[in-house]
Design goal:
mainly alpha, 4 helices
Length: 136
C-alpha cells in the first residue's frame, strides 16, 4: 500500500499500552460507571484518531486532514459527553474523566510519535548517508 519499510506502524503498540493505562485508571478510580465510560470513550476515540494519523505518517501521506479530523473527533466526544451531562443522562464525572483521560492520552501520543518519528529520521538519514557513500 505504498508503505515505507523504514517506518513501521506504531499504532498497535500504542493501542495496547494505552488500553492497559486506561484499565489501570479505571481500577484506580474504583470502577465508578461514569468514570469508566469517560475513560474508555476517550481511549476509543483517541485510538481511532491515532491509528489514522499513524497510518498517514507510515505511508508518507499528507497528514493534515487526518490530524484535523482527529481533533474534530476528540472535540465531538467532549461535546457528546457534555450534552449527556446537560440533559441529565450522566453526571459531571463523565466529562471530567473524559477530559483527564484525553489529556493523558494526547501526552502519550505526543511522546509515542516523537519517539517513533525520531527513530525513522535516524534510519532515513543513515540510509541516505549509506546511499551517497556507496555511489561515490
Amino acid at each position: 500500500m505504498g508503505s515505507d519499510p523504514a517506518r513501521r506502524s506504531g499504532a498497535p503498540g500504542y493501542a495496547v499500552v494505552t488500553l492497559l493505562g486506561a484499565g489501570l485508571a479505571v481500577a484506580l478510580t474504583g470502577g465508578a460507571p461514569e468514570r469508566t465510560w469517560g475513560i474508555f470513550a476517550a481511549w476509543l476515540i483517541q485510538a481511532v484518531a491515532f491509528w489514522r494519523l499513524d497510518g498517514a505518517l507510515s505511508e508518507r501521506r499528507d497528514a493534515t486532514r487526518v490530524w484535523i479530523a482527529g481533533i474534530a473527533l476528540r472535540a465531538g466526544g467532549l461535546g457528546v459527553a457534555a450534552l449527556l451531562v446537560v440533559t441529565g443522562w450522566a453526571g459531571r464525572d463523565l466529562v471530567v474523566a473524559y477530559g483527564i483521560a484525553m489529556l493523558a492520552l494526547l501526552l502519550a501520543e505526543g511522546g509515542w510519535l516523537a519517539r517513533d518519528l525520531s527513530r525513522t529520521a535516524g534510519r532515513g538519514a543513515s540510509a541516505e548517508l549509506d546511499r551517497t557513500h556507496s555511489t561515490g
